[in-house]
Amino acid sequence: MSTPFLSVSDLRVHFSTEDGIVKAVDGLSFDLEKGKTLGIVGESGSGKSVTNLAILGLHNRERTTLDGEILLDGQELLTASERTLEKLRGNKMSMIFQDALASLSPYHKVGVQIAETYRKHTGCSKKEARARAIEMLRRVGIPQPDTRVDDYPHQFSGGMRQRAMIAMALVCDPELLIADEPTTALDVTVQAQIMDLLKDLQQEFGTAIIFITHDLGVIADIADDVLVMYGGRCVERGTKKQVLSTPDHPYTLGLLNSMPSLDGPVDVPLSPIPGSPPSLLNPPSGCRFHPRCSFAEKVADGLCSAERPALEVAEGRGSACHLTPDQKRELFADIAGTRHN
Q1: CA 59 from centre of chain
Q2: pLDDT per residue over 229-250, tens digit each?
Q3: CA–CA distances in Å: residue 11 to residues 19, 23, 91, 224
Q4: Which of 34, 198, 252, 274 is most buried, by the most CB atoms less than 10 A from its CB?
């Protein structure tokens, strides 16, 4: 069996605050192969972005406790020096942030910002870096890149700024690309264009992609495998088809039931998940989803609130739930998961 390009094992990211320790990520493991896309989905505060900032080494280590292991092509990242991480960031691994306007400097031309990244990692001349910036703007579909390379971010539309961010992230041909909700706040047409662009570029470069989102519709479009996070933990993982067609955890089921169907009856009411995500400063005991789970009462002896369910994974498929397989088949029978596939 081949070694995965990215391997995250028992990752824990805890923040020290005046009120106590925030367990933002609490024992997370997953693997990612080259050329594949892993979709990480969950509500705000589930630990998605925190996980990927840990991979990039962007947490403040003075206030953050990082435990576990992150291997990128065999290289350990959690214990790597800042100098080593600086060489890797933007070069071997890169990230597209959610808010392109906030991520791009308003004081520098777009082309200069893309070229600066390329020069830092290659040591090339300004002329070569500018030519590379124009090439990347053309590759991501920016019209008239020879001219737009000298524009400032505010002169770009939202979709064009996001494309420029993608150009900057890919300028050094990284082997790992982390996309943190890159289509948020874009209209659906531009969203589709960005998704198609990422898939085309992945096919061209063979890049491994981690795609963070709260939108299962986006996951259905781009991901090969899916990891569902809740309360800083993975509650379910599997292939896209497995997770979206036959969910194996009540939280995943709740996410699917809260989404409108494009091909189903328009008058079917949505079923939002009751309650709010847990406080990671003082999380619930046992299964962190149990206070919001409509099936917790089906499990005997209050097991859901007393004991953390193990995430048992076989051939990439598994979930952390105390319900038996027979109970899941009976209780989840009404979901039409295939409408999301």
Answers
A1: 16
A2: 999 999 999 999 999 999 999 9
A3: 23, 11, 23, 22
A4: 252
